[in-house]
Amino acid sequence: MSDSPLIDSLTAAVQARPDDLPLRLHLAELLVTAGRGAEAIGHAAQVLAREPENESAQRLMTAALGGATAAPGGAPPAPPGSTSPAASTSPSGSTPPTGASTPSAPIPPGGVSIPPAATPPGGFSAHRPNSPSNSDNSVDWAAMEQELGDIVPPRFAKADDEPDPVEGHADRTFDVEKSTITLADVGGMQEVKKRLEVSFLGPLRNPKLRSLFGKSLRGGLLLYGPPGCGKTFLARAVAGEMGAAFISLTITDVLNMWIGSSERNLHDLFQSARGHAPCVLFLDEIDALGHKRSQLNSSSMRTVVNQLLTELDGVDANNDGVFVLAATNAPWDIDSALRRPGRLDRTLLVLPPDKAARAAILEYHLRDRPVAGVDLGRVADATEHYSGADLAHVCETAAEFAMRDSIATGEIRMIAQADMLAAAREVRPSTDGWFATARNVAMFANESGEYDDLAAYLKKRKHRP
């Protein structure tokens, strides 16, 4: 039980009416006056939690914090009606500070003035113990927040299934790498390398010639062809040849279920590429991001295509030094606006590897396997029209044949020529289905001549029995 009936009554009233802020402030004032600053802190903090700009609560909090820290080392509070020791021992000739008048009662720490309504009943005045005052009336909010972290409850509760707030796009990061692969690591493909040298690498290596002819370091190149023929590997080789940064993008990096997020992700990607210029930006499966808008039923995907066109144009930013390489297996499904000048205006057909490239790929995939007496030339002849992925599968199948015999006989044997030829007969080329579709496009949908190189290849291509 407290020694002040008024404080006890106000405490009970505040418990009954916790939202009555003036009543809570009045109780805090009485607690500060009575030297019970630790109790006043909680009441002032609850008022500040709801009204952070309440000046009375701020002054009370300052006074309560000052009283709470000074109380353990100072004298106990004087009982009501007693005279302050400082008042009785101070010399009569002392002069108050300039501009201040001598108060009729001691002023509590922090400069908090107690209104007449705060005077306890009985006609006596409550006196605070002598303690240093806070002259600048400033509040250390950082210290207050740290001290009251466990006292003040959160203002709003959150349901368990409520998602966390969405962070800004500034925290998004993309994998920017430096490619160590060059065109020398690409087996065969001499025509492809020649086209890349003329359109991309030549202008980069000759800045004076580029300046003379007004060639800008921007633009895009579309790589298309059957799957598994090394379009991604070729893009990395171009980045390594240029000594530029390499950023690879897939549809999972862009598409998002929230409206507008996919467009923002695409913008962030291009901004990252511009910040790392010179940079090769590789857009894999571009037909998924840049599908023909006339064939899209979803309005959200149409806006993604529009955003991609805007970023390629560089309307709001400078794309100099950003080389866009895109790859697709279905160029006929790409929106025609993406292939206009200034965007993906150059097209390069990446065909299945030729004989020299097939031999190099086979040698690469057999380098760490036990091999004896394998004629790579004969195996390359037997794997015409095979993609790079098909050739890797041939080597894997030949290794399985040799391992199966080793398990059956109990003696380890090497991968032989017979294993490679048997694997070539078992593995069928995966490019046949793609060329069946491409033949229809080259024959009946090539009015603009954009698939002339594909039509020329199909005329020379021999059909597999």
Automatic annotation (TrEMBL):
<dbReference type="InterPro" id="IPR003960">
    <property type="entry name" value="ATPase_AAA_CS"/>
</dbReference>
<dbReference type="InterPro" id="IPR011990">
    <property type="entry name" value="TPR-like_helical_dom_sf"/>
</dbReference>
<dbReference type="Pfam" id="PF00004">
    <property type="entry name" value="AAA"/>
</dbReference>
<dbReference type="InterPro" id="IPR027417">
    <property type="entry name" value="P-loop_NTPase"/>
</dbReference>
<keyword id="KW-0175">Coiled coil</keyword>
<dbReference type="Pfam" id="PF14559">
    <property type="entry name" value="TPR_19"/>
</dbReference>
<comment type="similarity">
    <text>Belongs to the AAA ATPase family.</text>
</comment>
<dbReference type="InterPro" id="IPR050168">
    <property type="entry name" value="AAA_ATPase_domain"/>
</dbReference>
<dbReference type="GO" id="GO:0016887">
    <property type="term" value="F:ATP hydrolysis activity"/>
</dbReference>
<dbReference type="InterPro" id="IPR003593">
    <property type="entry name" value="AAA+_ATPase"/>
</dbReference>
<feature type="domain" description="AAA+ ATPase">
    <location>
        <begin position="217"/>
        <end position="354"/>
    </location>
</feature>
<dbReference type="InterPro" id="IPR041569">
    <property type="entry name" value="AAA_lid_3"/>
</dbReference>
<feature type="compositionally biased region" description="Low complexity">
    <location>
        <begin position="83"/>
        <end position="104"/>
    </location>
</feature>
<feature type="compositionally biased region" description="Low complexity">
    <location>
        <begin position="129"/>
        <end position="138"/>
    </location>
</feature>
<feature type="region of interest" description="Disordered">
    <location>
        <begin position="51"/>
        <end position="138"/>
    </location>
</feature>
<dbReference type="GO" id="GO:0005524">
    <property type="term" value="F:ATP binding"/>
</dbReference>
<dbReference type="Pfam" id="PF17862">
    <property type="entry name" value="AAA_lid_3"/>
</dbReference>
<feature type="compositionally biased region" description="Low complexity">
    <location>
        <begin position="62"/>
        <end position="73"/>
    </location>
</feature>
<keyword id="KW-0547">Nucleotide-binding</keyword>
<protein>
    <recommendedName>
        <fullName>AAA+ ATPase domain-containing protein</fullName>
    </recommendedName>
</protein>
<dbReference type="InterPro" id="IPR003959">
    <property type="entry name" value="ATPase_AAA_core"/>
</dbReference>
<keyword id="KW-0067">ATP-binding</keyword>
